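Input (MarR family transcriptional regulator):
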Amino acid sequence: MATADPDRPGFVLPLLLLAGFRTLIDDLHRELARQGHPDLRPMHGFVFQAVGVGGTTATDLGQRLGISKQAAGKTVDRLVALGYLERVDDPSDARRKLVRLTPRGHDGLRRSAVVFDQLRAGWAARLGADRVAALEDDLRAVTPADLFRLDVPGWFGG
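Output:
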């Protein structure tokens, strides 16, 4: 069966969306490295969001990310070594450890938010603010309401 528009085959749309995502993330990480966070990787942003404000356990972190407890533990170990996360006693259960963001982790998140605003402004300057807003509105119209799903790392991993 031929595509409805041979100049715009269907498989190109997800590739362009992924390329746009990749461009933003690569630009973000270049700037974060310049600002003193050279070890942060795309996966780490998902981890920071899954850890949340109050912290979480490694088991819950793995579930939120859609990865194994072992993979979550290895990621936490790396981020603890880099100074972005810490393990502390759970005040509600002495047998458990909570993983939470350190001040360095909070700084990385704060800087990420600022850089994303700058990147969006750059796209608006290049494409036009109305076109970027329309793109965002159109994407909201075709995506589920829970647009930020933390299980993307597990989903990509299969």
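The CA atoms of residues 29 and 40 lie 7 Å apart.
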